[in-house]
């Protein structure tokens, strides 16, 4: 029942496409779900994808377009005629999907398509949606929804819904408004089905409805839908009039994207890329952080050269450079990632910053002490120099303390200044802690060597 | 309309709880959404939480329990009597929430509660659910669903649905089965509302229904629901009989948890912790990877001591230890995270392993060359020793190549052996690449110094 894309299937499909064998190509994909076809299109070149796409009939083609990944779709859209796109939009697309799609096109092409949409109401809905910030509730919502007046009774309500239901794909709630279109509540479909037909909408509605404004940020929308377990969320304007609704499937995408973005930042990847993107795109996505790493390494070299005299006298101090640098980096990444996760989960604001730093210092003190004692024991046994033994342990504890405070502090400060705290995870924290770690280590070393040996 | 938890609110609430002021405490929370109360409970000590919880009436109390975080709930559950819990379950909980809850209790207490549930059918549903693996479709599903027989007409269907709807919280689809309970299709509520009342279910059902088996893994369930934009997914047994359904809100939790787990692994945190957990829990969650880092650092020291003679003659080679170690670590983390994300998104299997490694090598070659040239220029200007200049550049390229191949290879191999590839991200990759990087650097250094200087 469920389709699994294999490289064998792809090979056969590509062969049929490349020999322009329409019938066989169509046979291969005609029974597949639009989401599966979208997945396949992502694996084809854009010529191949266009050939296959043009074999699909209207409704399926539109569903496939909606299900595609953004970059795959962009390539395909640019190969389709504006007439074709306008027809798709008129016949088969919800306003939010249509707006998402248009956003990927150059403005001239957008205008051309909008002017070709035969349904003016739909065109104006789409224009409205295009005006909202992509990362806001307005950018996520669809205008299509089923709304009923609070003064209607069930019978009228059902009659009206039958009319309206034509234009709505998914239907979970019916929104209730007053004569001025102010949102008054919702009626769940379950409620509609189990209520008697003479009931007034006013009397069966759930007035305790959670809504967001068009300018609510996407991640907040996601947090709200997740927290309150909602499948659909009404969107109102500044004064409370109903303008659209967001469904859970759009929010699942937001949740995934947020998580992926944070994950890529902590792993030092600056641009949104996917495994199948080509080598050049990967190079570009990874180079920026590596350049910062290189810069950090050069700084590290300069720090060490400040202490070159000490190093010449006691070259064995270099033995523990990797240890000190690695521990600083690891601790910093741990601390910063905890902060970033807390901020993402919206649970970070309850404690004051000083309290958070205090706890972080306590954790660092525990871990640092344990690790310092362990390396102390190791060095006592395997290292000849007692000064080095002491230096490594004291420096390790200090570096861990520093790295954890720094790793906590920086993302918190970024967050306070409304900058994405995830920028301070991964390579940034590692690089700074590397350099600072070496500096602390060599500084402590110089001090101890001068006190204990001279 | 929307509640925002502040520390001021918490302080007032705690004061009222600690002075055992039931009325005022209740007044503070009585109008809040269960999800908000659940959030508040998470910020209280377990005595405080119990006091507050016992003020809630049955249905709200059950909703709060369902909305709570697992660990918060576990503490609370252990303070409630088995009578209370049995009453909750009978009156207000879906089978899947009840099973999730019982799973958190010791077996003796589970049995006690199950025996106190007055509704035998419900008790047996829960026992069934407890038998499934937590990370499978069976563990995610609820038994409560609305099903109708394919031979009924719409009128009978609506009548039956009204009866069944009592026990179902959320209602998106009606499942259609034959006389032997085999899943035949679904009817969307939208369809029901817009169809004429004399239509036969058989004729309006959507037979092209996507379902999973009870033993389908949670992450696959999440991928399927996300890919096909489903809000509800029927679960069948090995031969196709309908046994339950999974709703999108449960799957959103799975998606979040998967993402958090991967994020914690890449940041070197081994146990699922939250920012508000205490310092000791944080220490325990972070120590394991730091120990591995320490061990790696010791290995690094031993590698360097192998080359101690060279270091004594050319101490300036130590200047670039941090650079080499950091670049190896960064590149390794980038490569491994790309693989992990690809595996999570289910798009990794289409290319052969050799193709993936080849592309990775190409990326490494691009980035490595750019970085090597840059550091070469830097060293030409700022470093006296040409041998060192050459050594650093050649070593950097080699280390980047090694780290990226290693970072790609290890998670792929883990995945092939059904081990979570995310284990190979973060500190593990960094540590290995640190040590190997230093080894490669010093090895190349020894070679070049012996060729070029002797």
Element layout with pairings:
The structure is a homodimer of 454-residue chains.
Chain A: H1 7-18, H2 22-29, H3 34-42, H4 46-53, H5 58-67, H6 70-77, H7 82-92, H8 95-103, H9 107-116, H10 120-130, H11 137-140, E1 147-149, H12 154-165, E2 173-177, E3 183-188, H13 189-194, H14 201-204, E4 212-213, H15 218-227, E5 232-236, E6 242-247, H16 248-266, H17 279-306, H18 308-313, H19 321-344, H20 353-382, H21 386-416, H22 427-453
Parallel strand pairs in A: 1-2, 4-5
Antiparallel strand pairs in A: 2-3, 5-6
Summarize the structure in words.
The structure is a homodimer of 454-residue chains. By secondary structure, the first copy, chain A, is mainly alpha-helical. The first copy, chain A, has three domains: 7-134, MgtE N-terminal fold (Alpha Horseshoe); 147-247, CBS-domain; 279-453, Orthogonal Bundle (Tetracycline Repressor, domain 2). Helices cover 65% and strands 6% of the residues of chain A. Chain A has a three-stranded mixed beta sheet with strand order 1-2-3. Chain A has a three-stranded mixed beta sheet with strand order 4-5-6. In chain A, helix 12 (154-165) links the parallel strand 1 (147-149) and strand 2. In chain A, helix 8 (95-103) packs across helix 10, helix 19 (321-344) crosses helix 22 (427-453) and helix 21 packs antiparallel against helix 22 (427-453).
Can I get a quick summary?
Two copies of one chain form a homodimer. In chain A, 65% of the residues lie in helices and 6% in strands. With 454 residues, chain A is mostly helical.
